Amino acid sequence: MSEESTTRRVRVFLVDDHALFRAGVRTELDSITDEVEVVGEAGTVGEAVAGIAAKLPDVVLLDVHMPDGGGAEVLRQMRPTHPAVVFLALSVSDAAEDVIAVIRAGARGYVTKTISSQELVRAVCRVAEGDAVFSPRLAGFVLDAFADRPGAAPISDPELDLLTPRERDVLRLLARGYAYKEIASELFISVKTVETHVSSVLRKTQLSNRYELSRWASDRRLV
Description:
CATH superfamily of the largest domain: Response regulator
Oligomer: single chain
Domain Response regulatory: 11-128
Protein name: DNA-binding NarL/FixJ family response regulator
CATH topology of the largest domain: Rossmann fold
GO molecular function: DNA binding
CATH architecture of the largest domain: 3-Layer(aba) Sandwich
CATH class of the largest domain: Alpha Beta
Domain HTH luxR-type: 156-221
InterPro entries: CheY-like_superfamily, NreC/VraR/RcsB-like_REC, Sig_transdc_resp-reg_C-effctor, Sig_transdc_resp-reg_receiver, Tscrpt_reg_LuxR_C, WalR-like
Number of helices: 11
């Protein structure tokens, strides 16, 4: 009995609105380790709430931005009724406001989608054991927010709040020098959709080109 308990796999539930990304994560986790077991997945908040309640996983890998509310909404609905389930945010975003929002909602850690498969396995196992796990530099956002240190970066920004989560994702990659085609590939959207988001961001920020947008994003620690 004791030997079984020491070799028990961590049961993982995937929440992301991109089926291709979920399939990739499931394949990677299943192929590289016996430490974790993917027991379910969901692409919407509603599916996530129902699936987590049914499967009762140890760890939920949770996307931050989804069309119907995102990771914070899943946490809002699940944390009061399922306190034993641990949530680890897995997102393309490394913006301070996204990190703080899900940590305040109850996530145990936050890693970005640039993480390697091996690092993701370690992160899952660590949060299952009670540790808090963050990608490099993201822990500083949490320390700033919860310590309320003078001079800490503001968590809310009225101008930034005008942008939708997807517009922020596009802006972040644009500011890092990604071409439209690369942004489309990274976010699983069309080039035309990228162009639409960029036009909307330019209009909302009242800026005129990508170079001004890059400086604007840098000032707000989005890059």
